[in-house]
Specification:
Blueprint (H helix, E strand, L loop, with lengths): L14 H11 L3 E2 L1 E6 L5 E6 L2 E6 L2 E8 L8 H9 L1 E6 L5 H7 L9 H4 L4 E2 L8 E2 L4 E14 L2 E13 L19 E3 L5 E3 L11 H7 L1
Antiparallel strand pairs: 1-11, 2-3, 2-6, 4-5, 5-10, 6-9, 7-8, 9-10, 11-12
Length: 213
């Protein structure tokens, strides 16, 4: 055991260098394939791994949206700001290649969903459509967008409806069947991880802990 560490004061580094440090250490991250609708009705989708669920009451998700060095907002940010609606399509192993295609910077009037050969289905409570191939899709409405810098917006969305692939969730217990779920995790650069090596470790009470010592 050694106490030797490397220390990095983030104020000494550029945003790109900070991104490299943070995104390579905080892993794996879930991937949100975010669906929005453009002003001409085009259905757009783009993957984001600066994403997570942060609350169940109310049910909230958070998205980190980056603005380009030239000050241009991506279609996802523009569409959410205009409509206040978006779909979080979760990404599994089978959706990996299509998700990578959706990362291409298409023109606003061209659909990444069409390019990736994905199928759309109508949402229940919002206009943007969900991706059928996704194992789970969360219909969301923007609650608040926080602007932390010229290049970073944080969008908080409330989940109004969830669509889940058949047999993935037990409708009575709401338990998840891990044999039918293969979520993909984002590491860094072009690296991803499969969640195939799983183990169970039940939480213990303070009484159980004290009984062992």
């Amino acid at each position: 055991m050694t106490d030797a560490v490397q220390s990095f004061a983030l104020t000494d580094y550029t945003p790109r260098q900070r991104y490299k440090l943070l995104s390579s250490l905080v892993v794996p991250r879930p991937i949100a394939l975010v669906g929005t609708i453009g002003p001409d009705g085009t259905n757009n989708a783009a993957p984001y791994s600066f994403f997570n669920v942060v609350s169940e009451d109310p049910p909230l998700v958070v998205l980190g949206l980056q603005i380009s060095p030239a000050g241009q907002r991506k279609d996802t940010a523009v569409n959410i700001a205009r409509t206040g609606e978006f779909v979080i399509n979760l990404v599994d192993d089978a959706l990996a290649q299509a998700m990578n295609i959706c990362a291409i910077d298409m023109p606003p009037d061209e659909s990444e969903i069409d390019a990736a050969g994905l199928t759309l289905a109508q949402s229940v409570s919002i206009a943007p459509k969900r991706i059928v191939e996704s194992p789970a899709a969360l219909e969301c409405r923007e609650v608040k967008t926080l602007k932390f810098s010229e290049r970073r917006d944080i969008v908080i969305g409330e989940v109004s409806h969830i669509h889940v692939r058949d047999k993935l969730i037990d409708p009575e217990t709401l338990g998840l069947d891990l044999d039918h779920y293969d979520p993909l995790g984002r590491l860094f650069a072009g690296f991803y991880s499969r969640q195939s090596d799983r183990f169970e470790m039940p939480r213990i009470s303070v009484e159980e802990w004290k009984s062992r010592t």
